[in-house]
Amino acid sequence: MFIGEYTYSIDAKKRLALPPKFRKSLGEQAVITRGLDQCLFLYSMKEWEKLAQKLSELPLSQADARGFGRLMLAGAMDVNIDNLGRILMPDYLKNYATLKKKVIVAGLYNRIEIWDEAKWNTYKEKTEKDVGDIAERLKELGI
């Protein structure tokens, strides 16, 4: 399980250290891909396999299903986690999320999100301001 919000830096060699408490659950290899809201999603291999299976079962006849599958699957890359808990950030994903030096590594239960620090702060401020309205809409989902 991944929870919490951490600030890290991408080094000159395009490596990003992951929070020590996340490393055990990830193991030695993970999958990073394009996420929603212009962030990146990082999954353990076990969680990635579950998600990839569901994505592969989406109907090919629906354009939205094809597009979402392409975004997630074609945008994915295996990453090795070195002995210092770092991953190498692929350029195309770094560009997609417009990551600069400072990033936020956020745990969201079964995945990790990686955000540009400024974008995260803007997103978080807006979400915190709208939390009452969001909670009201989530009632419809039984939350």
Give a brief rundown of this model.
Forms oligomers. GO terms for molecular function: DNA-binding transcription factor activity; transcription cis-regulatory region binding. With 143 residues, the protein is of the alpha+beta class.
Structure description:
GO terms for molecular function: DNA-binding transcription factor activity; transcription cis-regulatory region binding. Forms oligomers. It holds the Pfam family MraZ. It comes from candidate division CPR3 bacterium. The chain has a single domain (about 1-115), classed as Chemotaxis protein chec (3-Layer(aba) Sandwich). It contains 6 helices and 8 strands, in the order ββαββααββαββαα. It has helices at about 20-25, 45-55, 65-75, 90-95, 115-130, 130-140; strands at about 1-10, 15, 30-35, 40-45, 75-80, 85-90, 100-110, 110-115. The protein has a 6-stranded antiparallel sheet, with helices on both faces. A two-stranded antiparallel sheet has the order 2-6. A hairpin with a 5-residue loop joins strand 3 (about 30-35) and strand 4 (about 40-45). The protein is globular, with a radius of gyration of 16 Å.
Q: What can be said about the biggest beta sheet?
A: 6 strands, antiparallel
Helicity range of the residues?
Answer: 40-55%
Radius of gyration: 16 Å
CATH architecture: 3-Layer(aba) Sandwich
Order of helices and strands: EEHEEHHEEHEEHH
The best one-word shape is globular
**CATH class, anyone?**
Alpha Beta
Give the strand order of the largest sheet, numbering strands 1, 2, ... along the chain.
Answer: 1-7-8-4-3-5
Task: Pick out the low-confidence regions.
Answer: none
Count of domains: 1
CATH evolutionary superfamily = Transcriptional regulator MraZ domain
Q: DSSP strand (E) fraction?
A: 25-35%
Number of strands: 8
CATH topology: Chemotaxis protein chec
Rounded mean pLDDT is 93
Number of helices: 6
Class based on secondary structure composition and strand pairing: alpha+beta
Q: Report how far the terminal alpha carbons are from each other.
A: 20 Å
